[in-house]
Amino acid sequence: MAFSAFSIFSALFFGWICLAALYDQSSRTIPNHLNGSGLLLGIVFRLISDDLSLIDGLLGSLLGLGLLWFPFVYRRIGGGDVKFLAAAGMWLGPSLIFFASIYAFALAGLFSIFILYQQGTLREFLKQLTYMTLTLQKPTITTSYSLPFGIFLGITVLTLYIHTHSIIF
């Protein structure tokens, strides 16, 4: 039974996403060597593919980098998340990496609401959010829970990849 290059690279992509999510969950970091290997695999994947352009992948990487730049500068996410989305952009291209980031923020937001509800602080958070919106001041509520954003990025990137390439497990 022979495997196509697409099948092999898809399996490597899946493994890379899972490793990044596991690292982020356990240590709240995605190591540079892992992000670099994902980017390198994406470049090779694009070079050997007949219907994917390297330019499209580079644009996806630049957009992935740019989309998370401001949250990184304002210390809302880590540098590993930024580099992860840039590497994933090589695989997905610019249009899909844009949607992956939007969906990841939405998924993380929904999960945050669930966590706030579980902790019994959702009502207080919503009051503080309303106050912040009306007065343009920072909310005073704090939580000790932090979310590893790489997991949400991984879920959305992998979902879009599977959907785009019609992969059935």
The counted number of beta strands is 0
What is the chain-wise order of helices and strands?
A: HHHHHHHH
Main beta sheet: strand number and arrangement? Answer: none
Low-confidence stretches: none
Count of individual domains: 1
Q: Over all CA atoms, what is the radius of gyration?
A: 18 Å
What level of helicity do the residues show?
A: over 70%
Mean pLDDT: 91
- Helix tally? 8
Separation, N- and C-terminal Cα atoms: 17 Å
Based on secondary structure, the structural category is mainly alpha
Strand content: under 5%
Quick structural summary:
The protein is mainly α.
Describe, in plain words, how this protein is organized in 3D.
- This protein is an all-alpha fold and 169 residues long.
- It has one domain.
- 77% of the residues lie in helices and 0% in strands.
- It is built from eight helices and no strands.
- It has helices spanning 5-27, 32-48, 54-67, 69-73, 79-92, 94-119, 122-135, 149-165.
Which keywords apply here?
single chain, 169 residues, 8 helices, elongated
Task: Annotate the secondary structure layout.
Elements (H helix, E strand, L loop, with lengths): L4 H23 L4 H17 L5 H14 L1 H5 L5 H14 L1 H26 L2 H14 L13 H17 L4
